[in-house]
Design a protein that fits this description.
Strands 2-1-3-4-5 form a five-stranded parallel beta sheet, sandwiched between helices. A five-stranded parallel beta sheet has the order 7-8-11-6-12. A two-stranded antiparallel sheet has the order 9-10. 30% of the residues are buried. The protein has 20 helices and 14 strands. Strand 9 (264-265) and strand 10 form a beta hairpin. The chain has four domains: 3-121, Response regulator (Rossmann fold, 3-Layer(aba) Sandwich); 163-312, Rossmann fold (3-Layer(aba) Sandwich); 319-396, Orthogonal Bundle (Helicase, Ruva Protein, domain 3); 411-477, Arc Repressor Mutant, subunit A. Helix 1 crosses helix 5 (107-138), helix 15 (360-374) packs across helix 16 and helix 18 packs across helix 19. The chain is an alpha/beta fold.
């Protein structure tokens, strides 16, 4: 359903336009002056705007300038005028109007104009989607890699299910690449030109999840100063990934089940449901069957989601894929973070194969990225990946016990107590922890301080101060501790 703003100070014009536009299935909102239209445009989203060139307050051309300045996602503007002059037509089109109408106008002409503008908006969306996809292809970004029998079976299942509309449940341990499978399904489907929207259920507080998924109307609750479409409507015509579905609360499971059954959503504070056309893919690392037995997950929702199950094997079950994964990561990160391509020796590959990879492909990715940055030679040696693997293994185990044992060794080696003005062991160990955590965040963000601050959950200015205080060097834009 299109939302159309009609701004004109003549009641008869607004009435005639409302009648004609509502016949096309559009929702029409009226404004009686330029200032009224400006207020509506600032508070609500519109697909189209019919603006009178002369009305009390701001003129239609002034509003057209403001809409154009706000960016390409604003409404398509049609200017209306009672004076069919050459200057009016030229001025309206020069400022970015889609077209202009001369009063009195034929209602069939209005409806044809809306149909034409709708096609324009669709083309705009397709161009944006195409640019995004081309950008992803040429960035050499994440992709599914592997030739093992287990991964070949996964690829076959993706190929079989992509062209259907069946719901898919992707299962696998953390770090195996569940979102990559969902993206592959989307980009090989008939919906490839539509949006792909991923929502992580474990990353959003439960009290915000309903409005995140289904949207809300303006004024629905305190702080709702403007309406929001929600992720389901954002994914219209495309695919939505409900990641970590096992973390969704039971009340929202019931509402999600209704969405899947009825294919419609009702925004928080809304009075009527809205139809949606969205492909559903869910993902989880949890044992949903056990959650069903403990009454923490609805069995009927499970059957709705688990129409086509896809299991991604953990990396320890497909170690033959490690060489091809390493090649992919070296090629990707060498250009991404600005370091020379360094290839692992045979002993380094053996060391990688012998690791059990509790963090799966994501852990291997971080190991290779660290080795590329920290290696001082022309190749990646077993020592380079062994250090990283030990670090990863320690991080996956009981690191508080590790810290205690290291602190105990430090105290045993030091017989005297600290002087009052001397930096004590507490601060030494805190600095070591901060340096390690900040360096890892800088590494993962490719040296982008804004992204690193978000990963750490701290202010960017705080991160800058820490980088300076801890003297964390930034070779090639990557933060590495001394």
């Amino acid at each position: 359903m299109s939302r159309i703003l009609v701004a004109d100070d003549e009641n008869s014009i607004r009435f005639v336009l409302r009648e004609a536009l509502e016949e096309t299935g559009a929702e029409v909102i009226e404004a009686v002056s330029g200032d009224d239209a400006r207020k509506r445009l600032s508070e609500e989203p519109f697909d189209f705007a019919f603006l009178d060139i002369r009305m009390p307050g701001a003129s239609g051309l002034e509003l057209l300038d403001e809409i154009a300045a706000a960016g390409p996602n604003g409404p398509v503007v049609i200017i209306m005028t009672a004076q069919n002059t050459y200057d009016n037509a030229i001025e309206a089109m020069k400022r970015g109007a889609f077209d202009y109408l001369t009063k009195p106008f034929d209602l069939k002409q209005v409806q044809a104009l809306v149909e034409k503008a709708t096609r324009l908006r669709k083309l705009r969306t397709e161009v944006v989607t195409l640019r995004r996809k081309v950008g992803e292809m040429f960035r050499g970004g994440e992709t599914l890699v592997g030739t093992s029998p287990a991964m070949v079976e996964t690829f076959k299942t993706i190929g079989r299910v992509a062209q259907s509309e069946a719901a898919v449940l992707v299962r696998g341990e953390s770090g195996t690449g569940k979102e990559l499978v969902a993206r592959a399904i989307h980009y090989h489907s008939r919906r490839r030109d539509g949006p792909f929207i991923a929502v992580n259920m474990s990353a959003i507080p439960s009290e915000l999840m309903e409005t995140e998924l289904f949207g809300h109307e303006r004024g629905a609750f305190t702080g709702a100063t403007e309406s929001r479409t929600g992720r389901f409507r954002d994914a219209e015509g495309g695919t939505i990934l409900l990641d970590e579905i096992g973390d969704l609360s039971l009340p929202l499971q019931a509402k999600l089940l209704r969405v899947l059954q009825e294919r419609e959503v009702t925004p928080v504070g809304g009075r009527r449901p809205m139809r949606i056309d969205v492909r559903i893919v869910a993902a989880t690392h949890k044992d949903l069957e056990s959650l069903i037995e403990s009454n923490d997950f609805r069995e009927d929702l499970y059957f709705r989601l688990n129409v086509v199950p896809i299991r991604i094997p953990p990396l320890r079950e497909r170690t033959e894929d490690i060489p091809s994964l390493v090649q992919h990561f070296v090629e990707r990160f060498s250009s991404e973070i600005g370091v020379p391509q360094r290839w692992p020796t045979a002993s380094a590959i053996d060391a990688l194969r012998s690791h059990d990879w509790p963090g799966n492909v994501r852990e291997l990715e971080n190991v290779i990225k660290r080795a590329l940055v920290l290696s001082s030679g022309d190749v990646i040696t077993a020592e380079d990946v062994q250090i990283a693997s030990e670090s990863s293994r320690a991080g996956a185990s009981d690191w508080p016990s590790l810290a205690r044992s290291e602190f105990a060794e430090w105290l045993d080696a030091r017989s005297d107590e600290c002087e009052e003005d001397e930096k004590g062991p507490y601060w030494i160990f805190v600095e070591r922890l901060e340096r390690s955590v900040i360096s890892e965040a800088m590494l993962r963000s490719g040296g982008n301080q804004i992204q690193a601050a978000r990963l750490l959950g701290i202010n960017r200015n705080t991160l800058r101060k820490k980088l300076a205080d801890l003297e964390i060097a930034l070779p090639g834009g990557i933060g590495v501790g001394h």
